[in-house]
Amino acid sequence: MLSRRQLTRSALACAALLAATAPLHAQTAIDKALSSEKFTLVAPFPPGGPIDTLARVLAEGLAKKYGQVGVVDNAPGAAGNIGMDKVRRAKPDGHTMLVIPAGNLTINPTLMPKFPFSIEKDFTAVTMLATTPNVLVANPATGLKTLPDLIKTAKAKPDSLSYGSPGIGSGLHLAGELFKSQANVDILHVAYKGTAPALNDVLGGTIPLMFSNLPAVLPHLQSGKLVALGVTDAKRSPSVPDIPTFTEQGVPGVEIPSWYSLLAPAGMSAELAEQLARDAQDILAQPDVAERLKTQGLVRWDLRTTAFTRHIQDETARWAKVIAARGIKME
């Protein structure tokens, strides 16, 4: 017969074994569930650009890991709301997810009078994906080379300068308004319907300036067709380390990077959300993927589930104050 001490040791060994294997069983169950059907990554904007790139990277990575087809569903329209609605109505089983930019989560809920979603109630925040600085660019014909050059010109000749953005209430419009407030200058905002037409007018000299995310203007900076006056981030971008930040040039408080994230339908279990966050970050951390993103000015940002949810809440509150203070309204 076993002694009491031997029985105790045996019981403790069994308990330790069960504790060690329980996460493995849970992980295997999730893996099995995720391997049951194809993955759809909804990108609520047209093909091309950071959203499309990130969606395709994730679709390829998930397909490879789970042995299922990964597809990208470009569903543009209604400022991204059509694609968002597709995901809201999907099952929270991890097979339909949304790749979305910051503005749809942190600006539109305040700016749109009839915003049709509750970000917290209709979606599960899975993980941040990547970030890129916004950059203020100028047509070389302006002669502007630095932020102090711009501020000096704007103060000497009020209302003589204008800047373009993808539209009223976009993150890039708000970046411009925050810059004007922090630098105490008055520059006319010209709203466009998207980045492309604004960029074309800056390249053509119709307007002198534009706030843009880095991927959209990077080729033109490299070719010399545009001049970068500063990046709106806390530190310089590894993709363009020679471009100084606004803070370095004497204008603090304009730290507004663009970021992109992964959401799922509401009702997803915490365990599944954590697994998908881990999968996404593992995919983005692969050296070839990281290099692919870097060439487009994107850097992986690892902020998951609960911490990501808090970030959305904090940034929404920040933009609500800016929108109210500057009297910004949708036309």
TrEMBL record:
Recorded hits in InterPro entries, A to Z, give:
BUG, Bug_dom1
Signal peptide (UniProt feature, chain positions): 1-26
Sorted keywords for this record are: Signal
Q: Which domain of life is it from?
A: Bacteria
Please verify whether the record's keywords include Cell inner membrane.
no
User: Can you tell me which family this protein belongs to?
Assistant: Belongs to the UPF0065 (bug) family.
PANTHER family per record: BLR1237 PROTEIN (PTHR42928:SF5), TRICARBOXYLATE-BINDING PROTEIN (PTHR42928)
What is the protein name stated in its UniProt record? MFS transporter
Query: What species was this sequence derived from?
Result: Hydrogenophaga electricum
Upper classification of the source organism reads: Bacteria, Pseudomonadati, Pseudomonadota, Betaproteobacteria, Burkholderiales
